[in-house]
TrEMBL record:
<keyword id="KW-0812">Transmembrane</keyword>
<comment type="function">
    <text>Catalyzes the oxidation of protoporphyrinogen IX to protoporphyrin IX.</text>
</comment>
<keyword id="KW-1003">Cell membrane</keyword>
<feature type="transmembrane region" description="Helical">
    <location>
        <begin position="49"/>
        <end position="71"/>
    </location>
</feature>
<dbReference type="GO" id="GO:0005886">
    <property type="term" value="C:plasma membrane"/>
</dbReference>
<dbReference type="GO" id="GO:0046872">
    <property type="term" value="F:metal ion binding"/>
</dbReference>
<feature type="transmembrane region" description="Helical">
    <location>
        <begin position="77"/>
        <end position="95"/>
    </location>
</feature>
<keyword id="KW-0472">Membrane</keyword>
<feature type="transmembrane region" description="Helical">
    <location>
        <begin position="116"/>
        <end position="134"/>
    </location>
</feature>
<keyword id="KW-0349">Heme</keyword>
<dbReference type="GO" id="GO:0070818">
    <property type="term" value="F:protoporphyrinogen oxidase activity"/>
</dbReference>
<keyword id="KW-1133">Transmembrane helix</keyword>
<feature type="transmembrane region" description="Helical">
    <location>
        <begin position="6"/>
        <end position="28"/>
    </location>
</feature>
<comment type="pathway">
    <text>Porphyrin-containing compound metabolism; protoporphyrin-IX biosynthesis; protoporphyrin-IX from protoporphyrinogen-IX: step 1/1.</text>
</comment>
<dbReference type="Pfam" id="PF03653">
    <property type="entry name" value="UPF0093"/>
</dbReference>
<dbReference type="GO" id="GO:0006782">
    <property type="term" value="P:protoporphyrinogen IX biosynthetic process"/>
</dbReference>
<feature type="binding site" description="axial binding residue">
    <location>
        <position position="81"/>
    </location>
    <ligand>
        <name>heme</name>
    </ligand>
</feature>
């Protein structure tokens, strides 16, 4: 059972991160869009991608939170990894807020800001992988 849980957790993480990496790249282009047609097309792409990301987010979080219950327990490194997962969930929700602002034509950030914003999940992914592989703070 635990290996299947881990299998699905990794699958959901990969799928979710594909969206977390690409959605802010669409935001970069939305912030630079000049024509109405281009803006509408990019907005539709972003909205569809966000809806596509939702089940992967839920699956990653459910499987990730279930694993300690089935096998690994709540070692200190697990708490750190859960904290990273909560930060990623916050980033995901932040993306939804930014998307809503684009839809309402109330974006206030530049394309440069979105380029930096796009890098945040990279660092959170590095932290999560570090905690999962090296299991610091004892096992």
């Amino acid at each position: 059972m635990f290996l299947w849980l881990k299998f699905f957790h990794i699958f959901f993480i990969v799928a979710w991160f594909a969206g977390l990496f690409y959605l802010p790249r669409i935001f970069v282009n939305l912030a630079m869009a000049e024509g109405e047609g281009e803006y509408a097309r990019l907005l539709l792409m972003a909205q569809k991608l966000y809806r596509f990301m939702q089940p992967w987010c839920v699956g990653a979080l459910v499987c990730g939170l279930a694993m300690p219950l089935f096998a690994i327990g709540f070692a200190p490194w697990v708490h750190a990894k859960i904290a990273v997962a909560l930060l990623l969930l916050g980033y995901h929700v932040w993306c939804s807020r930014l998307l809503a602002r684009f839809a309402a034509r109330r974006n206030t950030h530049s394309h440069r800001w979105y380029r930096v914003f796009n890098e945040l999940p990279v660092f959170l992914l590095l932290a999560a992988v570090y905690f999962a592989l090296f299991k610091p703070f004892g096992n």
